[in-house]
User: Fold these one by one.
Assistant:
Number 1:
Amino acid sequence: MSGRDPLASADLAHLAALASPSNDSPPDASLRRHGLVVGELVALVDSGRVPLVVFDPQTDTAAIVARSLIDLTRHHMGSAVAMLFENGDPARPVIIGLLQGASNAVPQSLVGEVELEAGGARMVVTARETLVLRCGKSSITLAADGQIEIRGEGIVTQAARANRIRGGSVELN
């Protein structure tokens, strides 16, 4: 299923209109699809929120707007996806997963780029080079070389006991 030509913007708008969830007309019984179908993720549109898929056999050769139960990124484009169809309607695919294999592997350059572990009473977030937490005009930047930068309109430190500042030297203003 690979090697398809990229879709033009006009085609994407047309596809979105054709496959919108408001199209509630039931498909002809002979066109219904039941069970798992393997397709290909060919594009993500609308700022990466809307997947477009192709699959065999499909009544049209154009990519179809799908919904997804999983998070998809540009790195997944070209990957095989497992799909079911809402009410058996082949115009309403729902991606339920990615098929695992060499063609779906995340590029090695991205492996371990960002890790997130959550469990118990502690959460650990790890990044290889830089980790930035940002909210409005405030940010905390942690760099791999040990540099920490805290920025904001105002910064308050508060402690019930001692509030210590330690360093090779401490500069105020």
Note: The radius of gyration is 24 Å.
Number 2:
Amino acid sequence: MTTKNADPTVAAKVQRQADSLVIASGGTLALDAGATYIRGGTPQTASISTAAGASNVSLNTVQLKDGNGDNLTARRVVDIYLADDSHGDTITATTASGAVAAGASGNVLAALVASKMLRVITDATGKFILSITDTAKTHFYIVVALPDGTPIASAQLADASYGA
């Protein structure tokens, strides 16, 4: 790390520790043009895995991850919606026949579009389980809208994604 054209006291306020940069109280951080600051604990991506649940139920685990691909270890609020395409360009036109709700991890804060889009809070491990009950076993894509607006889509659900 270098301090170019900096106040000589800056070096005393900045320390490099393992994989982090610590700036003492009163210190500042200036970024060059094009640089990006990512606040620690901010979700940078997510994994979405699917398992068949009870009859006509699909259980979909969303795990938020940091910039290194490690699981977050904190509660975070994200939007989750059902889409008809892998890009998450639009909310699905199809409504599941039953509940679209929280499973065993996390909680629903608000239904933004009934049975199609939820604002959720993860559990303390950055995990949320989305339970979809649908007798038609619709082949939705599950999309997580990260806080920066990036959509992360699951693989398309299949008949086997729902319990028999």
Note: The chain is about 0% helix and 40% strand.
Number 3:
Amino acid sequence: EHYSRFIEAGNYGVEHLLRYAGILHFDKQYDKILPIVQPVLDKNPDNLVAKRLKAYALSKTEGGGKSIEAIKHFIETTPEERHIALDYICYAEQLVANEQFAQAIPYYGKIIQKDSTKQALWLTMGDIFANNLVRRDSADRYYALYEATLSAPDLQLLYKRGQNLYSLGAQDTVPERRVMTLHRADTVFTRLIELVPTFVPAHLGRARIHVQLDPETQVGLAEPFYKKVIEVVTQEANNADRYKRNLPECYRYLGYFHYLKADEITKKNNNPEVIPENALKEYRQAKEFFTKVLEYNPNDSVALEALQGMSTIQ
């Protein structure tokens, strides 16, 4: 405000005008910058600071592709040795805003090269890749680079890493790579649980990973992990309301696992008309879990169908 009054009083030179325009930029008053820097450029079209501030202002006030072109033109017509980190920040932000993610990544790298204090941008780069289904595999590299700069664990970052690796592994069609990636995700969630033992999403992440590692539920790898989710949700008051929506998934898995065990025992029985006692025990357990599903979601079609199929089991 004081600098504005100084300029309005008419006691200024080019240096004062450009300093004022810089203040306006950092104050995000982008629409006021052009009237300040344009007279400077009219007299001296090669004034680098004025050209830079004009490009910044246009990138923020123009719409769509024009916002990119303004800062792109400045970068392409300015010698690289005269670029500063803020030039690349401005360009990268505009590329991301226009969903040109792949083109933005090299400029985030240039920012860090120019200014080592900007290492938090590794996280931004990780997020860009994590949200790009085609290039999601690159996200963890940048998350790891960012984590290496931290003096203490970042819980949100660990969760992001675990979720990204889980999604990447679950979608992979190459068996060996799929298993390796899922185990990497499990390692991250395990670290997170060591830091916060009652963090439900990490327990749920481990359960879902083991579902993927045992897709036919042949051995029930996810059973102990879903049971742990139930324990942490139901025994921790802070978790009960927030995460109870996840309980049907847990009970549904457990019901299905015990149903499959019962079915396998029954098929091996020499007398198909008689259900072995150990199979009956598994069917009863399955019924108990599917009934629990209905406590949280009375219209769950899987639970309703399963219970209907076991209606004669006492």
Note: The chain has a mean pLDDT of 89.
Number 4:
Amino acid sequence: MEVAGISADWCSVPAVVLRFCVTLVCMDPLAHPGPSHVSRRWGWTVLFFLLLLADLYHAGVQYDSTPLDGDMPPGVMITWDVQKIFDDPLGIQVIRTGYGHANPNRFFCHWGFANYFRTAPRLLQQLVDPLQSVYLACALLKIFIHVGIALLLALFARSRAGGGWSALLLLMFLISPLFQIEHYRMSIGIIDQSVTYTFFYGLPALGFLLLLWCFHLLLSDRPLRPFPRVLLFLF
């Protein structure tokens, strides 16, 4: 199918951007790669990596300065209302008795949240003071989700248009600024200022994208490696 002289494969905006970047990086994709060609490509790769690293550092500083939210203490200390979730992890008693409680379908979120903030700050206290360790644990969790979602979105886009490490890093650099935590976070934010909301929504979104990526590999012509096979089995 042709649209205004452009094949349908070029009609996707990420594909157009990525093909342009691949052409820019490789200069002449049809030419036989020589030493200067390889050095240019690695030069672009290093440049895009440094740009991405600078953006992630800026994001990490922002994540480290966000305030703690009021949902953290009951989730970490396991108050009486949260304890009901641990006593009935599958929500069977809610179905049997008809008496509900908060979040009957979020046992694994609460379990992971409580264990992470009972473990990570203690480990980080080897490097920073106890108070700062909590903020640092929040920042590391957010930057992990940030990098994971950006990487998976870049992998999806690259699988459509092709390209190597340079294209992948450039795509991540283009995607990363959309993770707004300040000015436009209410409109296009992905990582919430509240670490509780990030854990309960951002982390499952990362897991869902990872599951979709495994299915994408399964349905493609490429051989499925052991790691995606294990993930598909676990899901």
Note: Confidence is low (pLDDT under 50) at residues 1-17, 26-32.
